[in-house]
Design brief:
single chain; mainly beta; globular
Length: 347
């Protein structure tokens, strides 16, 4: 074979090989999915390792379940609260059920609408938030007033009372409204305002909680930003804490924490959905430890990290803390109330 023939064959091979190599490279880049839009294409073994790592982070909780779960008596429980006598109130359907210290049902109160949130004052007045209405009942369950939150598409998900102030979290409109007890709107809190350094609430799913701390500041979850923010009653953002992480110290998923309660020492007890965890933080937001991890709360195979609202549906538990320091968890998966007490450490 002459040199000219060899050159012709070589040129033909190059013409064929180059497009093939380009096609292989383009295909490889496509499957790399640099932007992450196509999801995780790694093997199932790698996915299992990530999930197992997240579940294992819940080892050695600081609390233990101290008794058998209490059946709520509701088909769709939404909220839990306690009163000054440590009675437990559970709201859902169109009903509020009240249990005493012996876990016996004291009474049921029929509500006008399906309550999603509860607050019990020191005199045991009951404040229940439905989609767009605050319903008020006295300690015997008799209707004692109420008012409408006049916002289209309202979804009231939390309520707190201090003096003459009633605060409601509206997940539908991504705002906190401050009313007086006459039902007059006094202030709208948390709307995006660059000049006041307020980022605005990010609410990917209908979980949006608030409480009033002993320091006189309103604490509000900004779940899409994985933070708890502190506001004055006039709506000034003072500070915030919280970080995104699948590690046990942070909040993961699309929108966590979903609910929280405060202890008498000013600590925060938080609930996460998706990777279901109940945890404790100090008054400055420093992680202290677990109340219960995924393996205590949900089937292990379901306790995996998630990122989108569609993936992060598991859980949505609510939480309260009674005067004895017990953590009261409303388990929406089993329609029960579960009670956790701090483990005594023998030295």
């Amino acid at each position: 074979m002459g040199n000219n023939e060899k050159k012709v064959i070589t040129d033909k091979l190059i013409l064929v090989a180059v497009p093939v190599l380009i096609a292989i490279a383009v295909t490889a880049i496509y499957y790399m999915d640099i932007a992450g839009e196509a999801g995780n294409k790694l093997g199932k073994d790698f996915n299992y390792d990530v999930s197992k790592q997240a579940v294992a982070s819940s080892e050695n909780p600081l609390y233990e379940e101290s008794q058998s779960p209490i059946t709520t008596g509701l088909k769709n429980p939404r909220a839990v609260a306690v009163d000054i006598e440590n009675n437990i109130y559970v709201a859902g359907d169109s009903q509020i059920n009240i249990f005493n210290n012996n876990d016996k049902l004291i009474r049921g109160i029929k509500t006008k609408g399906p309550p999603r949130c509860l607050f019990i004052s020191k005199d045991k007045t009951i404040y229940a938030g439905t989609n767009n209405t605050v319903e008020i009942y006295d300690s015997s369950g008799k209707e004692a007033g109420g008012f409408k939150h006049e916002k289209a598409d309202a979804v009231l998900t939390s309520i707190a009372v201090s003096g003459d102030n009633i605060f409601v979290a509206d997940a539908g409109n991504r705002l906190v409204a401050r009313y007086n007890k006459k039902g007059e709107l006094l202030k709208v809190i948390g709307q995006k305002d660059k000049q006041r350094n307020i980022p605005g609430f990010s609410i990917p799913s209908p979980y949006f909680d608030l409480a009033i701390a002993d320091d006189g500041l309103l604490r509000v979850v900004n779940p899409g930003r994985h933070k708890i923010e502190a506001y004055t009653f006039n709506g000034d953002l003072e500070f915030s804490w919280g970080d995104y992480s699948s590690g046990v110290e942070g909040f993961c998923g699309c929108c966590n924490p979903v609910n929280f309660a405060m202890t008498s020492e000013g600590q925060f007890v938080t609930c996460e959905k998706g990777l279901v965890r109940v945890k404790v933080y100090d008054e400055d937001g420093k992680y202290i430890g677990l109340v219960a991890g995924p393996e205590q709360l949900v089937p292990t195979e379901k306790a995996v990290p998630c990122e989108t609202p569609e993936q992060c549906q598991l859980g949505g538990f609510d939480v309260a803390v009674d005067g004895n320091g017990r953590v009261i968890v409303m388990d929406t998966l089993h329609n029960t109330i579960r009670i956790f007490e701090k483990i005594e450490i023998v030295r």
